[in-house]
Design brief:
The complex is a heterodimer of chains A (338) and B (265). Chain A has 3 domains: 195 residues, no CATH class; 68 residues; 55 residues. Chain A has 12 helices and 2 strands. Chain A is mainly α and 338 residues long. Chain A is globular, with a radius of gyration of 26 Å. Chain A starts with a helix and ends with a helix. Chain B is an all-alpha fold. Chain B has one domain. The chains are: A mainly alpha (338), B mainly alpha (265).
Chain lengths: 338, 265
């Protein structure tokens, strides 16, 4: 098992790479890696047709994106055919370049979708809910109760539906769903009432005492600092002005959450352990990120910025760029080790 | 107005300002629509700012609202609504049709803006965890669904002011509101990635054009790619709300009284 934080760091770095490039070869290689990893995880979880379902989504996205771009964007020099100008929205030249641009858009969206599908596959519901910071204990509790209630609500919905069908309800129109929804709502809220009573008798009745407005104000201030840092970055202010705002903002938010989280008493029965391989993989991914940021800053990766406009050309390739395409395979090293 | 309500109002205004401003910034600032430099940073930064905004509202709500009764009540309501979304995933309806919005709108309308926000945001979170729908789009979906529930308080104000409660105009108002959000939800969600991921040249922001021309470009993109999808959501919302509202509000009325028990000692 890879530690959930390692997965999140991996996700962040791969996402930054995908969003940073428009080079179809890099995107294609990243996608191949993601599909390999996804296939492996799906096989472990005995999920059938994972690759096929994701490939179907990817191809649909590429097709839609290509058609939309081809019909609505008329930029590019290689004209395939011309649609009469008087046709609203789609009138104009249908160019090869706009088709390729659409394919690239589809590859980016598809890669992001598959990347997050892998995270959804790799992390259990327990790991995902644990990622909610301790400062949001009441919300985490609400989410946990909701997840616990979910199967029983589904079961009850099925039972009510069967009962309604036996009584002759055809379940074809929206109005036919009312006799399912209302009993479901009533019985579920009855259960919620019982749960509230039992929580109260077990001492959960106190409203959560985090009312000190200082915490809320410091969260708002932190967010405002981050927002200001982003705005300064957008307006090309020197980094020595925007970077401290980011640091102060995130620092304030982190410290507030840690301070509030200390008041929440939580019992954890299963701790995720950091294994040596987790640490090693984190170091590798962090190194990747540092090198990537440096290269972007120093304009050392021009091959990322491919554009098919105005003339279609072959995308440039760099060895270091190809090395970044190995990123999706990094978790497989641990998987093999396991 | 007491200090808690004042703080809540201030929180709401700040969050709505930051959230909407981040999403619409490319309309106002030339720098934000610099696609070559912003393609990677913009969607990530907007998601981050929205995530922080969500955190603020949720933090405020849990400190002023959530006791054991509310936790249980909201958890179950969220589970039911997530179940409806699961149904939507299992048996996809036409286009953007989704059965989750009516419960979000009715919660906000009957129990107040904060509960409406929580039902909206938490429904999207819980259903994303269940269906494996966690992604960079989730904060945007959560805050927009939260705004759907939160804004329903406007109808409460109108209905109470003109004594329309229990009259047909109440249903008409709610249905119209659901219909409006069917489109608005798509409009807001598109802003997150348009034009950095989805659109082609000619539909993307023009670096040199003003806000109005860029708005026209966005409208062209929206009409071309999303309108039909969102209309099915609008029609679905109108139909479901007009059919279900009376019965669901009766259930809410019954449980509002029961959930208002107080603990002494």
């Amino acid at each position: 098992m890879i530690h959930s934080i390692v997965w999140m760091i991996w996700l962040l770095v791969v996402m930054v790479f995908i969003l940073s490039t428009r080079n179809p070869i890099y995107l294609g290689l990243i996608l191949v890696g993601l599909l390999f990893l996804g296939h492996r995880l799906a096989r472990e979880k005995k999920i059938k047709n994972w690759v096929l379902a994701n490939l179907r989504f990817l191809l649909t996205m590429i097709l839609l994106s290509t058609l939309i771009n081809g019909f609505f964007s008329h930029v590019g020099q290689t004209i395939l055919f011309t649609i009469p100008q008087k046709w609203p929205l789609i009138g104009g030249n249908f160019t090869l370049e706009s088709l390729v641009y659409g394919v690239i858009n589809g590859l980016v969206i598809g890669a992001l979708y598959i990347l997050f599908n892998i995270i959804n596959l790799a992390l259990s519901i327990k790991q995902l809910t644990r990622m909610i910071p301790r400062a949001f204990h009441p919300i985490t509790m609400m989410v946990t109760i909701s997840l616990t209630f979910f199967p029983s609500i589904q079961k009850r919905a099925r039972e009510i539906k069967e009962a309604q069908m036996i009584r002759g309800n055809p379940m074809k129109k929206i109005v036919d769903w009312l006799p399912i929804l209302i009993p479901l709502l009533v019985t579920s809220l009855e259960n919620a009432f019982l749960l509230a009573e039992s929580m109260t008798t077990r001492g959960f009745h106190q409203p959560i005492d985090l009312r000190a407005p200082g915490n809320l104000i410091s969260l708002i201030l932190g967010t405002f600092f981050v927002f200001s840092g982003w705005m300064m970055h957008l307006f090309n202010y020197p980094r020595y002005l925007s970077a401290p705002l980011f640091v102060i903002g995130f620092g304030l938010i982190l410290l507030t959450l840690m301070a509030v989280g200390k008041h929440s008493k939580i019992t954890r029965y299963h701790h995720e352990e950091w294994k040596p391989m987790d640490i090693m993989i984190t170091i590798i991914i962090a190194l990747y990120l540092v090198i990537f940021i440096y290269l972007r800053w120093a304009d050392g990766l021009p091959s990322l910025n491919y554009s098919p406009y105005p003339y279609l050309s072959m995308p440039a390739l760099q060895t270091i760029g190809l090395l970044f395409c190995i990123l999706p395979f990094v978790p497989m090293i641990i998987k093999r080790h396991d | 107005m007491n200090s808690t309500r004042l703080l809540r109002l201030a929180t709401d205004l700040i969050v709505i300002f930051l959230g909407l401003f981040s999403l619409t910034s490319p309309f106002f600032f030339t720098q934000a629509r610099d696609i070559d430099n912003q393609a990677a940073a913009f969607p990530i930064m907007v998601s981050l700012i929205i995530l922080l905004c969500l955190m603020i509202v949720i933090f405020e709500a849990q400190t002023s609202l959530l006791d054991s009764k509310m936790i249980a009540f909201l958890a179950v309501l969220t589970a039911i609504n997530a179940g409806l979304r699961f149904l939507e995933n299992a048996i996809p309806g036409p286009g953007g049709f989704s059965p989750i919005f009516f419960l979000i709108i009715l919660s906000g309308y009957y129990f107040g803006s904060r509960i409406g926000f929580l039902v909206g945001a938490m429904t999207l979170l819980v259903s994303a965890i269940i269906t494996g729908g966690i992604g960079p789009w989730l904060p945007g979906q959560m805050i927009t669904a939260g705004w759907v529930g939160q804004s329903a308080i406007i109808l409460t104000f109108l209905v109470d002011k003109f004594a329309w409660r229990g009259k047909p105009v109440e249903i008409i108002l709610l249905s119209g509101f659901g219909g409006l959000w069917g489109i608005l939800y798509g409009v807001i969600m598109n802003l997150w990635f348009w034009p950095f991921l989805g659109a082609g040249a000619g539909q993307t922001f023009s670096h040199t054009a003003g806000a109005l021309e860029n708005l026209q470009r966005y409208v062209a993109y929206y009409l071309a790619t999303s309108l039909v999808w969102d209309i099915t959501r609008t029609v679905g919302n109108i139909l479901i709300i007009s059919i279900m509202t009376t019965s669901v509000l009766k259930v809410f009325q019954r449980f509002k009284q029961r959930f208002s028990f107080q603990i002494q000692g």
